[in-house]
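Example 3.2
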Amino acid sequence: MSGWLKIVGLGPGSEAMVTPEVTAALQEATDVVGYVPYVNRVAPRAGLVRHGSDNREEIRRAEQALQLALEGHRVVVVSSGDPGVFAMAAAVFEALEAGDAQMRTLDIQVLPGISAMLAASASVGAPLGHDFCCINLSDNLKPWALIEKRLRLAAEADFAMAFYNPRSKARPAGFERTLDVLREACGPERLIIFARAVSTPEESIRVTTLGEATPDMADMRTLVIVGSQQTRLIERAGAPLVYTPRSAD
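Structure, written as tokens:
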């Protein structure tokens, strides 16, 4: 049996947002490897072994996946959203570069998924309709000083900003500091969107301003978007729409 490795994105939550390409890969797989909550999204079936592991074990699970593929298994590594956005694709390639040279002969593919930032943007309109950047607010793999530098430079460049991993129980102070930096750099009237658990039954969308935002509006299931100076809010019956025009002054 010829082994292969596919690194896939399961989308933000809804099964309707899993691409047909990813569904086909899962149907062909002998093994699924990933963080336990994501592995649990793949239904068990005969001939499929599910290998779940804890958070912060990305390199270990990447090494496991590569070894299984080397042994002839058809392996799918699962991430939520898109695997190339703060997820498992980079971890697999990091393990590949450091691993046995034989692993480089494997058939390895990355299959894209719908990212949380794109699902969150679509839930309110098009706040990422012009130039934007995406920043992971977790300081597990980079120092806070670098995060703050990037926040200030993004604000200076007037990007709309999408933030992953804004606030966890282990580091609640980071997002409070993020809001302080953004208020200082952007002003209190700047629009901010809190999109939690998008496309799931627990979905919650809140549109407010930096001046009204509080740290407890975000958790690890929340994707936060801050608009640029150009970002506009359209009031209407029901939920408002938010968009950033395609042109800039």
